[in-house]
Recover the amino acids of this structure.
């Protein structure tokens, strides 16, 4: 793969990431609720799922997954239901009239935040098909396949990680400046982001 081809790939990925999706909205929500540093576990979960999806695409599993309509439907709608449940629970907990609102709450285990990120990304199994369609556009047939796939995958993961970090840092910065009842409304907005993320996943189920 030449440097020029790689630059075109970077520009393509930037264009694809210009619109926030379910994972970015989940990152916004968790950063606002739990802080940026803890929400990095959510980003790690998302990127782990992406890495597995890229590996599956490289191993030629995309055709198998694309042919399994039932599996796609079950996995996707399970992810939708999971995000809606998280969003509703977050909204219900954020009560502006709660006298204990300013008290320190038990921290959500980071493994739970990681799992949220992983499941949100894995809930779109057609991502394997997406990567299987994207990567061949930039892989040169006269060069070794796996080193090129590694470069493309690593580039995507680094760029996605940067986008998630920017979203998370911004949400955490805004959330830190609100206290009391205003903090509760920020958490409600975060819960709303989760529900919107679920709707986006659901729309993907309908239109794709």
């Amino acid at each position: 793969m030449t440097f020029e081809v790689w630059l075109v790939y970077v520009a393509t990925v930037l264009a694809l990431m210009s619109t926030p999706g379910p994972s970015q909205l989940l990152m916004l929500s968790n950063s606002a609720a739990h802080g940026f540093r803890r929400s990095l576990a959510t980003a790690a979960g998302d990127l782990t799922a992406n890495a597995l999806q890229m590996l599956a695409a490289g191993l030629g599993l995309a055709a198998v997954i694309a042919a399994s309509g039932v599996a796609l439907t079950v996995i996707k709608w399970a992810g939708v239901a999971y995000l809606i449940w998280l969003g509703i629970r977050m909204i219900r907990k954020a009560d502006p009239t709660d006298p204990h609102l300013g008290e320190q709450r038990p921290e959500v285990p980071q493994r739970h935040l990681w799992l949220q990120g992983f499941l949100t990304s894995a809930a779109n199994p057609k991502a394997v098909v997406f990567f299987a369609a994207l990567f061949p556009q930039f892989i040169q047939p006269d060069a070794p396949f796996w080193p090129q796939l590694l470069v493309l995958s690593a580039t995507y993961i680094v760029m996605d990680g940067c986008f998630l970090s920017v979203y998370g840092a911004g949400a955490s910065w805004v959330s830190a400046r609100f206290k009391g009842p205003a903090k509760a409304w920020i958490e409600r907005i975060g819960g709303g982001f989760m529900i919107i993320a679920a709707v986006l996943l659901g729309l993907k189920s309908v239109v794709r």
